[in-house]
């Protein structure tokens, strides 16, 4: 089988999983468990929109030192715990037909798929499992040792090339729900498709879809041989 010549990179929270509110609530509880208080919860206002960067920024401000790998691991475990607690009353589900769309790309398109998330790895896998979206961890570029969105996408491309044995992609498309996703794609000269967040239209995103049910999305990517879910 010849290598596929295109790559789709997916954000997770808000793009594949309806998990933003649960994650943000858990984020606050995890900070408090780490002994952090009186921090800015305008997450979009931080220079880099990743768990690791925001954690390190708040940690440095209050404890006057950078986080260590061990600090990140403790925070990651706390975040995973509070996501589980939050999901017990506010279940995490897929963005409508996300799982089906990933399957369609895998089996009926010229796209390889990979994932780049500002979340830490354990919570990212946790949210995907809760939404019943099985993804191999080797395909996820997470924020554990990466602070910026640009580095996350570049690492995701590296992971895709290694996993699929593909040295080059003719086209790379990033899927995301945040302004930071769009801006990162522009910086890296990568095509972008917005999902879910109507505010992206105000920033000039031309390819935008509320979820993965739209036939126009399949036509745009030339995804073949589909049967709609019922």
Task: Give an account of the 3D structure.
With 230 residues, the protein is of the alpha/beta class. It has two domains: 6-19 and 93-220, HAD superfamily/HAD-like (Rossmann fold, 3-Layer(aba) Sandwich), CATH 3.40.50.1000; 20-89. The chain is built from nine helices and eight strands. The strands form two sheets. Strands 5-4-1-6-7-8 form a six-stranded parallel sheet, with helices on both faces. Helix 1 (20-33) crosses helix 3 (69-89) and helix 3 (69-89) packs parallel to helix 5. The radius of gyration is 18 Å and the shape is globular. The mean pLDDT is 94.
For the largest beta sheet, what order do the strands appear in spatially? 5-4-1-6-7-8
The shape is globular
**Secondary-structure element string:** EEHHHEHEHEHEHEHEH
What proportion of the residues form beta strands (DSSP E)?
5-15%
Low-confidence stretches: none
What distance lies between the first and last C-alpha atoms, to the nearest angstrom? 31 Å
Global Rg: 18 Å
What's the name of the CATH homologous superfamily of the largest domain? HAD superfamily/HAD-like
Mean pLDDT, to the nearest integer, reads 94
Oligomer: single chain
CATH classification, class level of the largest domain: Alpha Beta
List the total number of helices: 9
What structural class should be given to the helix and strand makeup?
A: alpha/beta
Known CATH architecture of the largest domain? 3-Layer(aba) Sandwich
Give the strand tally: 8
Ordered list of secondary-structure elements with their pairings:
Layout: E1 6-10, E2 17-18, H1 20-33, H2 51-63, H3 69-89, E3 93-94, H4 98-108, E4 111-116, H5 121-130, E5 140-141, H6 149-164, E6 171-176, H7 179-187, E7 191-195, H8 199-202, E8 208-209, H9 215-220
Parallel strand pairs: 1-4, 1-6, 4-5, 6-7, 7-8
Antiparallel strand pairs: 2-3
Helix pairs in contact: 1-3, 3-5
